[in-house]
Amino acid sequence: MAKKRQKKRTQNYKKHLGQVPGALVYTGAKDNKQLQLHAFDYNEHDYKEADLSSVEEAFRFKDSETVTWFNLNGLNFINQIEKIGQHYNLHPLILEDIVNTSQRPKIDEYKDYFFIVLKMMYYDESEKIVSEQVSMVMGKNYVLTFQEAEGDVFNGLRERIRHKKGRIRDEGSDYLLYALIDAIVDHYYAIIETMGNKIEDLEDDLFTGLTQEEISQQIQNLKREILKIRRAIFPLREIINRLEKSEGPLIEEKTTHYFRDVYDHIIQVTENIDIYREMIWSLMDMYMTTISNKMNEVMKVLTIMATIFIPLTFIAGVYGMNFKNMPELENPDGYYIVWIVMIAIFIGMVVYFKRKKWL
Amino acid sequence: MAKKRQKKRTQNYKKHLGQVPGALVYTGAKDNKQLQLHAFDYNEHDYKEADLSSVEEAFRFKDSETVTWFNLNGLNFINQIEKIGQHYNLHPLILEDIVNTSQRPKIDEYKDYFFIVLKMMYYDESEKIVSEQVSMVMGKNYVLTFQEAEGDVFNGLRERIRHKKGRIRDEGSDYLLYALIDAIVDHYYAIIETMGNKIEDLEDDLFTGLTQEEISQQIQNLKREILKIRRAIFPLREIINRLEKSEGPLIEEKTTHYFRDVYDHIIQVTENIDIYREMIWSLMDMYMTTISNKMNEVMKVLTIMATIFIPLTFIAGVYGMNFKNMPELENPDGYYIVWIVMIAIFIGMVVYFKRKKWL
Amino acid sequence: MAKKRQKKRTQNYKKHLGQVPGALVYTGAKDNKQLQLHAFDYNEHDYKEADLSSVEEAFRFKDSETVTWFNLNGLNFINQIEKIGQHYNLHPLILEDIVNTSQRPKIDEYKDYFFIVLKMMYYDESEKIVSEQVSMVMGKNYVLTFQEAEGDVFNGLRERIRHKKGRIRDEGSDYLLYALIDAIVDHYYAIIETMGNKIEDLEDDLFTGLTQEEISQQIQNLKREILKIRRAIFPLREIINRLEKSEGPLIEEKTTHYFRDVYDHIIQVTENIDIYREMIWSLMDMYMTTISNKMNEVMKVLTIMATIFIPLTFIAGVYGMNFKNMPELENPDGYYIVWIVMIAIFIGMVVYFKRKKWL
Amino acid sequence: MAKKRQKKRTQNYKKHLGQVPGALVYTGAKDNKQLQLHAFDYNEHDYKEADLSSVEEAFRFKDSETVTWFNLNGLNFINQIEKIGQHYNLHPLILEDIVNTSQRPKIDEYKDYFFIVLKMMYYDESEKIVSEQVSMVMGKNYVLTFQEAEGDVFNGLRERIRHKKGRIRDEGSDYLLYALIDAIVDHYYAIIETMGNKIEDLEDDLFTGLTQEEISQQIQNLKREILKIRRAIFPLREIINRLEKSEGPLIEEKTTHYFRDVYDHIIQVTENIDIYREMIWSLMDMYMTTISNKMNEVMKVLTIMATIFIPLTFIAGVYGMNFKNMPELENPDGYYIVWIVMIAIFIGMVVYFKRKKWL
Amino acid sequence: MAKKRQKKRTQNYKKHLGQVPGALVYTGAKDNKQLQLHAFDYNEHDYKEADLSSVEEAFRFKDSETVTWFNLNGLNFINQIEKIGQHYNLHPLILEDIVNTSQRPKIDEYKDYFFIVLKMMYYDESEKIVSEQVSMVMGKNYVLTFQEAEGDVFNGLRERIRHKKGRIRDEGSDYLLYALIDAIVDHYYAIIETMGNKIEDLEDDLFTGLTQEEISQQIQNLKREILKIRRAIFPLREIINRLEKSEGPLIEEKTTHYFRDVYDHIIQVTENIDIYREMIWSLMDMYMTTISNKMNEVMKVLTIMATIFIPLTFIAGVYGMNFKNMPELENPDGYYIVWIVMIAIFIGMVVYFKRKKWL
């Protein structure tokens, strides 16, 4: 499995290496069979919604005064993405970044729009962390979102648009951007919750359940997951901060409070991550202590047994010698006296170990 | 118990996940049966105090020139909180944050008021750290405080208002805000004091009292408590700093010295926390050393006993052999000579170990 | 003793907790029986010096053009301190800070004066670190100093004023402030020197002298002392820096070079503290290594003895068996042959261990 | 081999020590036999390419409006480099830095050009990291590159110029500089990928393959490689940042987006390096745990064997004694009774160890 | 030796403690018997050089337009230094710092000159690090240097002045200052090179050569040396930075490029120091692992020997019992059967350990 992962990574890098800047190459693993295009167009009075079969259909929404949200699933349909790029006049580097799924989360400010790359994260069925790239372009009156595959993260938001829940229908594209980011950040709570449970479970297992190799492996896995999550979530702080501080006309004054709120959530998530990180390192220490304690106990058992019986065995050995002239052997009570001596030594030793609190 | 905690947390997150931004959901655990509302209205000459039965009663204080302090206990009475929000014209995000008790301490500056979230912390009877959220809204002439449950933290302050102790009655709402924060920060000293005592007790127990598993568990608990306290207290530095540096009309020049004073207290508390943190890590090291020392001692006992008796037992074994022709056995003094040899070896070994300082 | 310290600390916090801000409560442990008041009044031509019996006597110096240095020993005389506060128009928080000896070193800038809190540190006779609070108020033409008890730290400075040594008599109150701080900082060198000696002594003892529990205890004590010293000295960097950078009329341009010089000393002291800190942690590591080495040696002795004699004892055991038919036993040279075999095994083992460098 | 490396380094330092600033001394190890000079001259319409035999031939390109890229392989040809320096009016320190291959990556801004030093890094056949210095001078209309030896890192770029792939032919020398740096940064991905594979391989080997000394050595090697890579790559962040933020006329506005893109790549690479660094330290911990676990297992085997047989051997010893009067020996069933007792002890011990989970 | 060092240090501090600021006390250990004064006076056309017998002779160079470099060896000649101070109008604190050799490297900017304190570092014959203070005063047209004792670090520079090598004769006193600092920084390379060799040697010795106590001692020494070097070199970064950024008339624009170059060298040296620092800590870890590995091996030998022979010895013990009725003993083949059983057990054990990879 380790082999598999490393091969996959190699492949991605290879794709990237030596390629012309500006060339579009999808570096992800998901080859969607069909392109999914979904468009929303709404204002406070009305909304339109459509599943489209080609990107050209979406362009009619562009110049309307209403807010347009255009979502694309399937980054392997490079041609379609290029068409969108041309239509919305996107910089070539943006298109390159959309399809290169090994991007770090970031924000790029262009004259007419923001480009934002985020990471969706969730645990799959086999309890492994999966990270999917979501790219967003937000301009006046429109937001474009690009996902690797269909997920349900934005479904709640869609319902809110359809049924005019909350204030989303009353606001512009900046509030839509906020709502999209908020939906992704909300899902990070599930990640850190699962991570917290994993740590607590492992903590319980330290003293009881698993073999030492399993524990060692699990601690290592947790460390690696934490590193992966950190890398996906930490850059968000700067992204949100720059959106909040942005002075252009794209983000309205009243929306910055909402971005401030997301920022607080991000800080909370990253603080939790750092706490878990520290707890995992602490687990490692506890585990080392547990091992040392166990070894200590093993040593005590050995020492007690050996220390009690070694002198007794010596005494028995002495009277097993075959010397002609050994007066004790002739003594009719000799055998009983030896037993008394040996029992006395035994008791003495036990008392000694009791005092040392080894027993 | 670990299971219980994790379930509770899961629940809270679930409540949050996918909810419409702006919707009020109380995420705490305390379901107060009755709403407690308490209002103060004072200036240098006079004061009024009342336990109210509904929030509407409080609104008559609003427009007076006097300073109004309105305290609400019971965050599960969402309707009442919404009414206050409407009356005082609070931003929807503020109401959401008041009832969401998993907030990180923070300050939000709005045009007409400050919104501040703090954490009350105390050890309950079972010596566990409890953290309760206190939210404050401070505007011109009024301060609103929202608590999860009735506590006695502000009682001293109430007495000072009633009996005109100190300068509180002579000052405005900014000084009241200072006094409220100061009351909470003062309680942090009790926390760090208890934490300090716990560490010192554990330090004494390292060499004597508890079993190794208990010590290991207690160190882990202390680490977790420190992390929890840090998370609740560290953001306060920035909060107070921003209040002190605030340039709007809400905080008067002369009050900034008082905020500076609280700031110094916070720094003192956080420094103590960091010192305790370092001491706990250091305890872990000492504990590891203690274990190693104990193992060393066990090993020495085993080694001394084994090393002394192994050659003696060998000698006894030799003369227990049944060879026909063993001249020593025929020697009438043979037995005594062997004893002398064995005693000599014994003494030699003891001297050797004395020199090595193992005895 | 640990108990005693923790009780004292509890007491101090209790005193503080719930007290009206602005109320004066002395939180130190030293109850001076008599108030000591000492005043200096000097310019380049002349100086007056007096031991006063009440603070009122000091007030006549206030309005003179000459530089006045007024020193008070005994923070438990709260009334007197309050009188000074009224006379010099000091902010209530300053008076509170003067008598609250658990202050962190700090500087507060007021309109007409600076308020500075420092920590005098020295090792007492029982080699424990003692920290005493020294507060200073520096205004135009005067410096007030408040000490817990009479110390000799400023005696050198007094001599210099009396005998016009150096430039102190030619300069204003800002130079006097510098000279006072410099005197305190100079004493920190004695602290770090003692600390350095302690570390070197302990380093020597690691391999020879003390029992393992004593070493463990001493390392822990050193760590705690370092933490205490750091806490007292580190804030000074910011204090001096702000004095140097101060732009008001209180600090003259030409004096900033002197503050820069003190600043360099502070940096030197803090660097030494950090180095000692690192050395103590390093000591801990060395100590762990020493323990492991000792255990290794113990194990080797046991292993060598056991490994050599176990096969020999087995051989002796074999020929101690009582089988009827054991041809070797009948052989008249059997006993000698067995001896030869056993000696050969012995030599073989010794050679083996020599090669492994265990002997 | 360690000796060899240290000698080489010594030599380089010696060369540098005491030399006149401004004197050109090549400090690398590669003595190219022949100087390789390669020139490109292009605009959007046309391009010229030439392998030159002397630097003078290159000078004719200088004053053209077209973009000139002049590449030199072989830093030991000091004379030629000096000629270029004179022709392009380079500061003496630049020439010194070009041939001193122990430079740290850096950027120096001069009035008419940028001077940039980078490190090419790759693993050679024996899996050792090789670092080669590449210096670049970028002025209006020209870029000069200086390499230690011929590599293939810029071949892709040359193809793009020849066949007008991408936008390189449409842009100026700033884009060429970007493309050169991008080519080098792209190669860092191969480094971190190999590093990642090495760590994963070692992780697998921890529990199975290698001897402990080999593992210890490999961990040490990985640590050193990480340190080396960090040192070569981390300064790049500042270099790119300064190029992006540069306000002179050399870097056009539109090119800054491309530098921003390279910056993101650098951040990604450095983040990976830090993650690997943490993973290596974590490996060390795991390895220590593995050793402790193994020792624990060894101790258990010894303890079980010794503890079971020591009492049995003692019993056998007792009945091997030669006392005249030992009634058990006369008992015809004595021998069988002793066997029963010994088997009972044996079973009791095994049950005891099963319960302790040692078996 | 540790005693000696600590006494020396104590002495230095004592000298400093309680001294009047501004009083000149030489705190170094070197009492030069004779004052060495050396003066250079040069411009691009000519140079004068003289060994002077008194500082007064030097003053005639002062007001010339030519660059004057005046070097003094022997800080114990306090009178002479005071005369220079008066003549060049140096601030009293500068004179104090020149003779106080426990200074931290620093730069002080005065109106007419810079004052710089640096540390010369080298390994003496007994491989101990020696640090000597070099102070410099650079004003318009002159540089004064003060050394503890005659060294050869500036000899190369003197040659360059005499023979007009490089550009030194063409430049002003700022370039001379650069050249002096550059000469000192160049010598740091020798330090880090020796340090690097020491680390590599120790690394080789870990697995072979030295006793464990020696290794432990050497690691500790290396740590201390690194700390000492860091303390001497790290402040240089800020010093050079401030020279480079200095805006006064003393440093010409064109010289800043040279200071930038020295700055790069300093960064390179400090990076190497940090790498060595990390390598030493890593060595400590490796050493701990080595110890654990060795203990593991010792334990294995013991366990194998004991585990193989303990059951065999038990069997021999059984047939050494003296029961009347032991049928096996009467069996004429009993002895041989027992041997077969014992050999079978032996082989079984060996196979078992082979499978566990302990053999």
UniProtKB/TrEMBL annotation, chains A, B, C, D, E:
The keyword Transport applies. It is found in: Cell membrane; Membrane. It holds the Pfam family CorA. InterPro entries: CorA_cytoplasmic_dom, CorA_TM1_TM2, Mg/Co-transport_prot_CorA, MgTranspt_CorA/ZnTranspt_ZntB. Keywords: Cell membrane, Ion transport, Magnesium, Membrane, Transmembrane, Transmembrane helix, Transport. The keyword Translocase does not apply. It comes from the Bacteria. The chain crosses the membrane at residues 301-322, 334-353. It is a multi-pass membrane protein. Signal peptide: none annotated. NCBIfam families: corA (TIGR00383). Mediates influx of magnesium ions. Belongs to the CorA metal ion transporter (MIT) (TC 1.A.35) family. This is Magnesium transport protein CorA. It comes from Olleya sediminilitoris. The gene is corA.
